[in-house]
Amino acid sequence: xxxxxxxxxxxxxxxxxxxxxxxxxxxxxxxxxxxxxxxxxxxxxxxxxxxxxxxxxxxxxxxxxxxxxxxxxxxxxxxxxxxxxxxxxxxxxxxxxxxxxxxxxxxxxxxxxxxxxxxxxxxxxxxxxxxxxxxxxxxxxxxxxxxxxxxxxxxxxxxxxxxxxxxxxxxxxxxxxxxxxxxxxxxxxxxxxxxxxxxxxxxxxxxxxxxxxxxxxxx
Length: 219
Ligand code: SAH
Hints:
By secondary structure, the chain is α/β, with parallel strands linked by helices. It has helices spanning 3-20, 27-35, 67-77, 94-103, 116-128, 165-169, and strands spanning 56-57, 63-64, 84-88, 108-113, 134-138, 151-156, 171-182, 187-194, 200-208. The chain has one domain (3-208): Rossmann fold. The chain contains six helices and nine strands, in the order ααββαβαβαββαβββ. S-adenosyl-L-homocysteine (SAH) binds at residues 62-65, 88-89, 91-92, 94-95, 112-115, 118, 140-142, 157-158, 211, 213-215, 218.
């Protein structure tokens, strides 16, 4: 069996595992995990672990998040075809590519990475997938990215001390922010829904450990 077929089988196993564990609930998210080859987002020495449910170090202290965590966050974000999503912390570009599949050709992913070396790694990975609806840029995502606002959803892939009010300004009404909020050691995964121009509702979804958000409104 060639390696492409082996990786495809491993992806299918990972999807089954994530579905059985209740991490993946929707067919759109299952389909995205089936089609984005996670092994193309890890360094060569970690190829064997590419489809294990673990976070894997990449470069400059960045990581590719654990698949079950990515699935949980995507289900909570609930992205839909045609949506415009802001991702804070591009990392390997893996989650950006999943989002790209989910929102489709009429959607758009804006992803921002503070570390230029990590951004270069991600941009190469994203290019290899030919995802044309992703704009990856270098910058401080702790203040969002006003130029392309408003977004249907905002997802933090780094731990934030808080989600500042100005982020809600960059969100459409009925849009959602998914973010791990807490200390640099542990965080609560929060979903903040903008229910009207002036109101929002917040819910908590378990304890996680992400790399800390840096920048102006980070740690
Ligand atoms: N979603 C990624 C994982 C990202 S890890 C994946 O699927 O691979 C978190 C990333 O957030 C790190 O690469 C880190 O450099 C970046 N980061 C930290 N603070 C940031 C900030 N203020 N703005 C943008 N990116 C930031």
